[in-house]
Structures are given as C-alpha cells and as structure tokens.
C-alpha cells in the first residue's frame, strides 16, 4: 500500500506526467462538449472568428476607396484586423475555462490551472487554424497576401497570440471572483482594437495622442505584422520588446493570482 | 498514508465564521480503515473534501503518499451532454488507466445496457448512481473516501456494490464519514471524532462511538 518513496526529481516528473495527461483529457472533453454535441463543433469554433474576420475585412475593403498605405487595400485591412481576432476569440474562449468546467474540480487530480491550460491550448489551435484559413481565403479571392518577410509575419502572429493567450488566462482567473469581468475584458479588447490603427493609421493623429496610443499593446501587434508587409513601416512606434513585456506581465499576474486565489477559485 | 499537518480550515456562512479544523495535525496510517464521526454540522463533509483535495485548507499542509479517491458517491461531475461511455473514458484518462478496460468494467458493473451510449442527462437517478459507483470502483485507489453512502440502488445492486467494495478493501484503505454505526463497525478499525474544530483519534471503536454519543446528547 502507498507508493514507494521517490526522489524529488522523480516526484516532479510524475507530477508533470499526471498534469499532461489531465490537460490532454480535458482538451478532448472540451472539443466534444464546448461547441455543442456535433462532430462539426470544432469546425464551427474556427468558422465563427473566421467569418467575423473575413466579413470585417471585406466590408472595410469595399467601403474605403483609397488605401492609407501601400497599394493593396486587403493587405492593409487584413493585417489590421487579424491581431484583433487573434486576441479576442482565444481570450474569450479561455475566459470560461474554470466557470464552465468547475464540476471537473470534484476530481481532486484535476487542478484549476489544468482547466485554464487546456482551454489555452484549445484556443491556440483555433487561432492557428483561423490564420491559415484566412490566408487561403484571401489568396483564393485573388489577393497576393504573401508577406515580404514571412519570418517577421510569423513572429508578429505569435506575439499577438501570446498577448491573447495571456489575456485569456488572466480573464479565466478574474471571472471567478470579479462580477462583470467578462464585459470589462471585451470592452478593453474592443478599445484596444479601435485605437490600434487597424483601420485608420494613427500617424494622422497629433503626436501627443500618438504617444498615448503607443501604450496599447495591440497597436504593436498590428505594427509588427504590417512591418512584415511594408518596407520601413512602423519604425517610429513599433516596440517589440514592449509588447512581449506587457504580455509576460499579464501572464505572470494571471499565474500569480491563480496560485494565491486557488482556494477561492475551486470553491466558486 | 495521509497526514494533516497543522491544518486550518474555516468557511463563512451568512454572518459567522465556522471553524471546521482548528490547526489539526493527524496521521491516517496505511492498513487501517478510519471512521470520521461528528454531529451534523461538525464539518465532516468539508473535512472529507479537504482530505481529498477538492477543497484547500486555509492553512497547514496535507500530504498524501498514495492514490486517494474523490469523495465517493457523487454524480456531479458527469457531463450531462456526454454519453456514459465518454464520461467513463474521461475519468480513465485523467487517472492514467486503460480506457477500454475501465469502460468494460463499468459496462459490466453498472448494467446500463445501451444507455451507456446515451447522454448522461437522459439517465434516471438510479442509473446515474450506478454509473458513478461503477466508475469509482473502476479506478485503483489506495485510499477510498466515502461520505455517508457506500451502496446504491435496489437490494440486488446494493449487494453487488458491497461485494465489489469488499474486494477493494483487501488492497485499499478507507476513510468514511457516517452516522450509521453498523456500517462503521463492519468497515472501520479506528475512528476520529470531529468536534469544535478538533480531531480526537481513537484506536478503539467503542470509545469513539461512546464519545460521539455523548456529543449527541
């Protein structure tokens, strides 16, 4: 009876194996149940943000006559909207990680952080699929969406996804004890989008306003992605390190609050 | 097996602070079955959840050096839109058991027939209980935590539960909270009386039950 005594590394390795197993099981369960009980559930979860992104892009391309930048309107609008969608949807999905799956915490082997990590991984796969599908759709529509620098484009997308994932994890913790947090987070996300220069470049605004808007991390996501398409773009605002710092801070706050509020998160 | 080290646990009701465990240190030794006795409201269920790890203590440490079950007998974490089979597979996966073996066992034990592939939300309460019990017997735990109920269902199924559970007890220990002295006498070697945030450990069941009786007066 009982387990043989283990070394500290052995215990750590065992705990890690258990956690991977649990996260994998929650992931499978979420894919089956999160989107309704159909086999198309996961496809719908990808199609929803994709439709949002495609329709917004198409609408903006049709509405604006002259592109503020470069020669291709679709590239300008698409690179502006993609960061918004890649932040909004994954973070929204992770937000309900604990509240929707709280019943699983009745199994002591399942920890609240497992619920959050499983949902984060799921939302990352959706973000990846949305990005690839969007590029395919735009290309099929006859637009050359291939960036000047594919490496920078991938970096920009990854940095954006990192911001969205960190936000989502913070939301997942906060919604468990701050009433109305979901609304607050969506409003913040929309404000970040509106001031990110996605549709209207902020360079048209007074310098003092630009300096304030430069604190918006999503502005740097847009600039990072556009710098992969436009030569010399964003050199006056883009600060990659700032974006990574903000995301990392959000992530650390999320993990720290999960650690210290775990007892309350579990009890709900 | 399970050690509580200076564990402090309270919860808030409307206006008052209810202290369940007031800096309790106790060691549940492997090889013995323990009963937890206490009057209604003493905090037996909370204590069970703290021992299981589904609630965290407000202070102190709990060490478990064996596989401890969840508090047995609930059907709360079965997903109502997933089928019985999918729920069983999930639990098998998180506990690292062979999913097919566990499904086979539960299929055989819970006698749900074709309902195993129906959403759990369509089950009767009896079917839910049978599934939940079958599931808790399907995972090999070293220590089973039981809050009041062991056997569920009709007389025939209840005797199957007892038989299956007897097999488990050959290899595993149990910690049970119950008001039923008959089942405590038949299952447990030792007892802990929970009162006023303290845990009194008794190696002799009769003394424990006597103490518990006096608390009830």
CATH topology of the largest domain in chain B: Rossmann fold
Indicate the percent of residues in helices of chain B.
25-40%
Largest sheet of chain B: 5 strands, mixed
Give me the count of strands of chain B: 8
Q: Which of globular, elongated, flat, extended, rod-shaped describes the shape of chain A?
A: globular
How far apart lie the N and C ends of chain B? 33 Å
What CATH architecture of the largest domain in chain B do you see?
3-Layer(aba) Sandwich
Number of helices, where a helix is a run of at least 4 consecutive DSSP H or I residues of chain B: 7
- Globally, the shape of chain B reads globular
β-strand percent of chain B reads 15-25%
Structural class computed from helices and strand pairing of chain B? alpha/beta
Concise overview:
The complex is a heterodimer of chains A (268) and B (217). By secondary structure, chain A is mainly alpha-helical. Chain A has helices at residues 8-33, 41-63, 73-95, 97-101, 112-140, 150-174, 181-194, 207-213, 217-227, 240-267.
Describe the protein's topology.
The complex is a heterodimer of chains A (about 270) and B (about 220).
Chain A: H1 8-33, H2 41-63, H3 73-95, H4 97-101, H5 112-140, H6 150-174, H7 181-194, H8 207-213, H9 217-227, H10 240-267
Helix pairs in contact in A: 1-5, 2-3, 2-5, 3-5, 3-6, 3-7, 3-9, 5-6, 6-9, 6-10, 9-10
Chain B: E1 2-12, E2 17-28, E3 34-37, H1 44-52, E4 59-64, H2 84-94, H3 99-110, H4 125-138, E5 143-147, H5 155-171, E6 173-177, H6 181-187, E7 190-195, E8 198-202, H7 205-216
Parallel strand pairs in B: 3-6, 3-7, 5-6
Antiparallel strand pairs in B: 1-2, 1-4, 7-8
Helix pairs in contact in B: 2-3, 3-4, 4-5
How is this structure best described in words?
The complex is a heterodimer of chains A (about 270) and B (about 220). Chain A has about 270 residues and is an all-alpha fold. Chain A has one domain (about 15-265). Chain A has 10 helices and no strands. Chain A is globular. The relative contact order of chain A is 0.12. With about 220 residues, chain B is α/β, with parallel strands linked by helices. Chain B has 2 domains: about 1-65 and about 175-215, P-loop containing nucleotide triphosphate hydrolases (Rossmann fold); about 85-175, P-loop containing nucleotide triphosphate hydrolases (Rossmann fold). In chain B, about 40% of the residues lie in helices and about 25% in strands. Chain B has a 5-stranded mixed β-sheet with strand order 5-6-3-7-8, sandwiched between helices. Chain B has a 3-stranded antiparallel β-sheet with strand order 2-1-4. In chain B, helix 2 (about 85-95) crosses helix 3 and helix 4 (about 125-140) runs parallel beside helix 5. The model of chain B has no long low-confidence stretch (mean pLDDT about 90). At the A-B interface, helix 1 and helix 10 of A face helix 2 of B.
